[in-house]
Amino acid sequence: MHITRCLHTAILVSDLTQAEHFYGTVLGLPKVDRVLKFPGAWYEVDGYQIHLMVGEVPALHDPAQWGRNRHIAFAVADLDATKSHLLAHNCPIQASASGRAALFTQDPDGNVIELNQRVEA
After folding, report:
1. Which of 66, 65, 60 is CA-nearest to residue 105?
2. What is this structure's pTM?
3. Which CATH architecture does the domain made up of 8-54 adopt?
4. pLDDT tens, 19-43?
């Protein structure tokens, strides 16, 4: 087997309307066409898709350390501006415990999102 690239991540959400607001408006991800009939929505960033699916959302494994839970990570250009944007939208934030230029937030269902300011070489 030779895996050539990652295509998508599926995220369970309980309230599709709230989730669409978070992923589409707060995070600013562009929505893409979806061909499946069960409730959900698809978003895409740089050729990688995020599939929101309505279902029962499991509890966090470690509620105190968000980065030690299942999560999806996105690179951001400016972590300080990202932090201010999330706070303006009343999103919870937690700094990375590692000291990296990263922070964590949660969608309305508690799914963890890492936002990482990476320096490109």
Report:
1. 66
2. 0.90
3. 2-Layer Sandwich (3.30)
4. 999 999 999 999 999 988 899 999 9
